[in-house]
Amino acid sequence: QVQLVESGGGLVQPGNSQRLSCVVSGINLDFYIIAWFRQAPGKEREGVSCISGSGSSTYFADSVKGRFTVSRDKAKNTVYLQMNSLKPEDTAVYYCAVHSSWVCHNIATQYDYWGQGTQVTVSS
User: Fold this and answer.
1) Mean pLDDT of 54-69
2) 19 neighbors 9 (Cβ within 8 angstroms)
């Protein structure tokens, strides 16, 4: 059974940092790409970042380039999204998802498994 569990969300002030974690079980991440999506109220789900199993392929949305980084801990089967210089417009529910592929992309409908999401609120 494949499970993805996100954590690390919460309330953070603008300009500060937050790190999200996604623990994956039931699959070998070497053969999957792992992405972070977010969805704000009234908006479409947006692909934020992605990393391949080998780490050789990554993706970042233009809105987060230079502020967010993605990494994975193979031993812990965990992927991290480090979010720096957070802005109020980063407020959303953040989801991690996996897809059997070698190359990152942000097409949500192609992802096979999803986590339950974690709320990130950027506000003073």
Assistant:
1) 94
2) no
Distance CA 103, CA 106 (A): 10
C-alpha span between 114 and 47 (Å, rounded): 13
Average pLDDT, the chain: 96
Q: Which residues contact 108 (CB under 8 A, 6 or more apart)?
A: 37, 45, 47, 97
d(CA 124, CA 75): 36
Rounded distance, CA 24 to CA 6, Å?
A: 9
Q: How far apart are CA 85 and CA 66, in angstroms?
A: 9
Is the separation of the CB atoms in 100 and 34 below 8 Å?
no
